């Protein structure tokens, strides 16, 4: 009997070693985790110079990994940035890649190459946990049935998402295409054009609200918070706003625990510090900056807990972590939540000009770091890199090629073996684009609003050419377009080459 037990123990221990081996010392197929925040600014982390807020867990990734000072999202808003991240295609190539309502159809074609698809072809298990905001279904979604196509049809084996944003209906979790916790006797209906008869709204029922709206956000009320879009029914499925972070965290932890035997790609798309900012009560008041600061602290804590899980499950050394944000910061994005009043000396954009929605640097230049314990040496990189480049770079890492997109293979840059990033990058804000060329940033002339009044952000728009030398003038105070005609000409030529001739309306 004892002999039998011994033999079984021996077999089990070999099995264990064997299964661990799939995921051990593998430098071509590490686990890959993208931790993606929502509206986190270039200056929002202590590792990026913030002095008024302390983000030790994210700082660990920055200080023990590679911290990029010229890391970009493709766009100054969410949907286009996420489109660029997942497809490797510049979002301005797709006119529909704008902030989407919750009922929008899937933006990514199911025939398109995507980051999760590519990794799946390379043998990865793939998952998204968190914010999607890339449309679902064909635009006529019945939320009570299987919702498709969605993340599962563009490469994710597992999806646990919020459809659009926390401020947009439907305010439910969707797991592999099914609304979680839905009661058949209380079906859910969603509409972005008109309200359902008899349903209260933020506009007409201020007595039901516990978070006041400033602009927009006055349609259906869920959990006392007025949202964008109208909803009826589905009460059992509605999320509790203050639990979202914990719920996504435990989903992410559980995913690691149950998929650690073989390489996995996890896109952990957190919802902080996007509006409505609803940190769990454990974090309320902790930053002294109101809910926006508290939500950042909450995100930092979640990342610390997630890292503990990677460690505990024995996969930390076998995991490449990429951290970034989908666009720059905004304080008042539609609710009165004291983000402006309690800001104090904190500068969410750091030294950068503009913010979310802006073609100025703060719109798209975001915290960006790569961390891989034992493989990436700690350091700072000033190379120009963009989230769009992850597709080709991770293809190279996993020993395949991906050159059908706008993505550049910057693997050596992401691993800290080279400082040679992109020469050129097109950035985008609300369909308008600009060129980063070396140290220079050229914004072509555009008609339209230069200041977004309700959010208090400069959009970077002018009817004249703008040309900034970011190395000498990171705060974009000196427009050198007139003083540097040759440099301007060079930038226009490159821009037209990348973007198309008719784009610049030369005066
Ligand atoms: C805007 C919303 C803003 C935010 C943004 C999307 C209004 C007035 N403003 O239209 O609150 O939801 O869309 O943010 O509705 S993003 O980070 O997902 O791009
Ligand atoms: Ca965002």
Structure keywords:
four-stranded antiparallel beta sheet, Arylsulfatase, C-terminal domain, 10 helices, binds 2-acetamido-2-deoxy-6-O-sulfo-beta-D-galactopyranose, 22% helix, ten-stranded mixed beta sheet, alpha/beta
Structure description:
The chain is α/β, with parallel strands linked by helices and 507 residues long. The protein has 3 domains: 30-178 and 240-418, Alkaline Phosphatase, subunit A, CATH 3.40.720.10; 189-232, no CATH class; 426-499, 2-Layer Sandwich (Arylsulfatase, C-terminal domain). 22% of the residues lie in helices and 18% in strands. The chain contains 10 helices and 20 strands. The strands form 5 sheets. It has a 10-stranded mixed beta sheet, with helices on both faces. A 4-stranded antiparallel beta sheet has the order 15-16-17-20, covered by helices on one side. The chain has a two-stranded antiparallel ribbon with strand order 7-10. Helix 5 (244-259) runs parallel beside helix 6. Calcium ion is lined by residues 38-39, 78, 274, 326-327.
Secondary structure elements and pairings:
Blueprint: H1 2-21, E1 31-37, H2 56-63, E2 66-72, H3 78-87, H4 115-121, E3 125-131, E4 158-162, E5 173-175, E6 178-179, E7 188-191, E8 221-222, E9 225-226, E10 230-233, H5 244-259, E11 264-269, H6 291-312, E12 319-325, H7 361-364, E13 368-371, E14 379-386, H8 390-397, H9 411-414, E15 424-429, E16 432-437, E17 440-443, E18 451-452, E19 457-458, E20 466-469, H10 485-499
Parallel strand pairs: 1-11, 1-12, 2-14, 3-4, 3-11
Antiparallel strand pairs: 2-13, 4-5, 5-6, 7-10, 8-9, 12-13, 15-16, 16-17, 17-20, 18-19
Helix pairs in contact: 5-6
The protein binds 2-acetamido-2-deoxy-6-O-sulfo-beta-D-galactopyranose and calcium ion.
Calcium ion is lined by residues 38-39, 78, 274, 326-327.
